[in-house]
Amino acid sequence: MAAQPQESAGAARAGESLLKVEDVQLSFGGVHALRNVSFEIRRRQIFSIIGPNGAGKSSMLNCINGFYQPSAGTITYKGEPRKQMRPYQAASQGIARTFQNIALFTGMSTLDNIMTGRHLKAQSTLVENALWIGRARREEMAHRHFCEEIIDFLEIQQHRKTPVGTLPYGLQKRVELGRALAAEPELLLLDEPMAGMNLEEKQDMARFILDVNDQYGMTIALIEHDMAVVMDLSDRIVVLDHGEKIGEGTPDEVSSDPRVIEAYLGTQQEEEA
Amino acid sequence: MIYRESGQFKTTYAADQAMLPILQDKIFVLAVIALAVALPFLVSNYVIQALLLPFLIYSLAAIGLNILVGYCGQISLGTGGFMAVGAFAAWNILTRMPEMPILVGFVLGALCASGAGVLFGLPALRIKGFYLAVTTLAAQFFLVWLLQRPFFVDYSATGVISAQEIQLLGWTVDSGIDKYLFALAVVVIMALVAKNLVRSSTGRKWMAIRDMDVAAEIIGIRPMMTKLKAFAVSSFFVGLAGILWAYLYLGQLEANAFDIYTSFDVLFMVIIGGLGSILGSFLGAAFVVLVPIFLNIVPGWLGLPLDTAMVSYIEVFTFGALIIFFLIVEPHGLARLWTIAKQKLRLWPFPY
Ligand SMILES: Nc1ncnc2c1ncn2[C@@H]1O[C@H](COP(=O)(O)OP(=O)(O)OP(=O)(O)O)[C@@H](O)[C@H]1O
Ligand SMILES: [Mg+2]
């Protein structure tokens, strides 16, 4: 209901495996945030992770981009199982993300936030930057051009020079998406990109996500609570509850799975009632 | 909101990304530089030596500290110590290798300060805020103590160690005007360098670490490298300021001239002038240099001569009050007030 996909998402266009999560476990003291979770994300997919509050969804993304280290299990990215890794290493391998609670650089403008997201593509050295010679000047122009395209795409032209701290919530979420896109990631992790938005803003955001996936073939892992959005956008869904995977499949399969309905959709209906 | 002059539309990103995109600003800066060059010929030698020279050199130190504190969000109370390292390293290099061109000696001296900055910045990789402040405070005392060891300077012979005379391309920098112009050239060049850095990818990384280091790391910024670069660049500027202080202002090498009060003064300049602003560094330096003089002169005019003790109390009190004011009300300092004034001026006389 919230989103009108231009193209029905078909599992057929999914490509080779991009990320494989096998038996991943994560615990904080006594709390088991993730227990033996496994799934696989294929290229060009929009892959959603759903589940009630505290299910471990954000923790899963945090493991994928190296913010948390799983206590057991393996994560294989682009065919290579990986060991300990820092978030900046994940970023340089092509994983970008947005946060459940916006994490923008509040002292900087929209443009500077997005330009910062592009820094991995910047090669100019400190000395070149200091003297504004060589690659410094050239790259700055090229990156500015690229970032302006993102700004146009996200329809935030008039907020280009506004400090992001003063922007309304919905626009901040957009800028954060822009910052992630600037890195031209292969895998984009979106943690509740539509939380707290009104219907119109949600529709815009859904359109952006579909376009990014469609036009640039970017693989997306999405956490979202709005079931209508998830069912419309996703190629594949995994359902978590209390750190455990309780279901996986296409939107149709998941929405008719009795365990999922009981654990998640059921409780949500109760809350709404 | 208006942020551009009407009629001056930027048709290319290059034009929009120029250092001073607005024509009036460009004219203003050029006028200030022209005035700055003419100034020493209009005022007395005393004003040059006691006012203008310290102002320029402090501005350079404030730019350096602002890079660390205002742009990268780290803290340092070791400014004086790093200034001392710059001065003593340059002097030692130039004394031991008399053939070396003096400017090269200065750059090498500033690089030594850079090294010291990185060394004492290492704890910043693990600790933040208060603890980092304490570490850099320790650096301040340790460095000033270390530099007085006979290995670095031997005071026993004369008690005073003079700085070498600055000579380049046949120009001997000895009169007040010479010294002023030399300092001005260095400061203008270094201010441009600082401006280039903060508008480049280097500067954006610093600001990202300052605003939210967790998010910065997640978009691929390496926190350690970025912080250490800020310490290195900041200390380079600060070290260079120390060299100018010794060679131009004092004319001699004296570790105690770089005491903890120097560190605090430069920090005050950064806070009062504006965190994260190159212009603010100049405004802050002007303010801190001028206020004591103002306090000395004005009560006299008003027929209320104050004794020196009283003046220094008022001075401390004024700075204290201002710092609390700026930290709480306007962390962007005088530079921000200047921007607001400019925005008002752009709309004037139609405030809507
Ligand atoms: N850094 C942490 N320290 C301790 N416990 C944590 C930490 N991060 C997550 N947890 C715990 O792990 C569990 C899963 O949290 P997580 O944030 O992954 O849930 P979520 O599915 O994203 O929930 P929500 O829908 O509310 O965002 C929760 O019980 C949470 O309290
Ligand atoms: Mg979450």
Explain briefly what this protein structure is:
Chain A is an alpha/beta fold and 273 residues long. Helices cover 39% and strands 23% of the residues of chain A.
Q: Please, what is the average pLDDT of chain B?
A: 84
Biggest sheet descriptor of chain A: 6 strands, mixed
Low-confidence stretches of chain B: 1-7
The total strand number of chain A stands at 10
Strand arrangement, major sheet of chain A: 6-7-8-3-9-10
Mean pLDDT rating of chain A: 87
CATH class of the largest domain in chain A, named: Alpha Beta
Helix/strand-derived category of chain A reads alpha/beta
What bound compounds does this protein have?
A: adenosine-5'-triphosphate, magnesium ion
The helical percent of chain B reads over 70%
Structural class of chain B: mainly alpha
H-E order of chain A? EEEHEEHEHHHHEHEHEEHH
Summed up, the helix count of chain A is 10
Q: What characteristic shape of chain B results from the CA principal axes?
A: globular
Element order of chain B: H for helix, E for strand:
HHHHHHEEEHHHHEHHHH
What radius of gyration of chain B results from the CA coordinates?
21 Å
Looking at the overall shape, the CATH architecture of the largest domain in chain A is: 3-Layer(aba) Sandwich
For the largest interface, the chains and their residue counts are:
A-B, 43 and 32 residues
Number of helices of chain B: 14
CATH homologous superfamily placement of the largest domain in chain A: P-loop containing nucleotide triphosphate hydrolases
For this entry, what is the oligomeric state of its chains? heterodimer
